[in-house]
């Protein structure tokens, strides 16, 4: 049986990227000699169920994702320090 740990603060792995792009319309300004691309589009990329996944998100959601990713990195650093300390105090010394 899996134990589920609940946090008071949400965390998230992955990364946020931005992109601009061209559309499919032939006479659009995004296809001009000096193109004016559409966007900026925000994208989250990470793993879901073992598969790399990308989701297009809003700027507001991207900001929230960045906060959650920072929390995850901080938590991971704390866990790494706990493991390091546990190894220094391992019972085989």
Q: Tell me about the largest β-sheet.
A: 3 strands, antiparallel
Shape: elongated
Strand line-up across the major sheet: 1-2-3
Mean pLDDT: 93
Record field, number of beta strands: 3
Unreliable stretches: none
Tally of individual helices: 1
Q: Domains counted in the coordinates: how many?
A: 1
Question: β content, as a range?
Answer: 25-35%
| C-alpha-based Rg, rounded | 21 Å
Share of helix, binned: 25-40%
Describe the structure.
By secondary structure, this protein is an alpha+beta fold. Strand 2 (38-48) and strand 3 form a beta hairpin. The mean pLDDT is 93. Helix content is 32%, strand content 27%. The chain has one domain (15-88). It contains one helix and three strands, in the order βββα.
Which secondary structure elements does this structure contain, and how are they paired or packed?
Elements: E1 15-21, E2 38-48, E3 51-57, H1 59-88
Antiparallel strand pairs: 1-2, 2-3
Give a concise summary.
This protein is α+β, with helices and mostly antiparallel strands and about 90 residues long. Helices cover about 30% and strands about 25% of the residues.
């Amino acid at each position: 049986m899996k134990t589920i740990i609940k946090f008071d603060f949400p965390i998230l792995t992955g990364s946020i990227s931005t992109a601009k792009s061209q559309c499919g319309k032939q006479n659009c300004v995004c296809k001009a000699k000096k193109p004016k691309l559409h966007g900026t589009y925000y994208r989250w990329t990470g793993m879901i169920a073992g598969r790399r996944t990308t989701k297009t998100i809003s700027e507001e959601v991207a900001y929230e994702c960045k906060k959650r990713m920072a929390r995850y990195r901080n938590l991971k650093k704390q866990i790494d320090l706990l493991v390091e300390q546990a190894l220094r105090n391992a019972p085989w010394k």
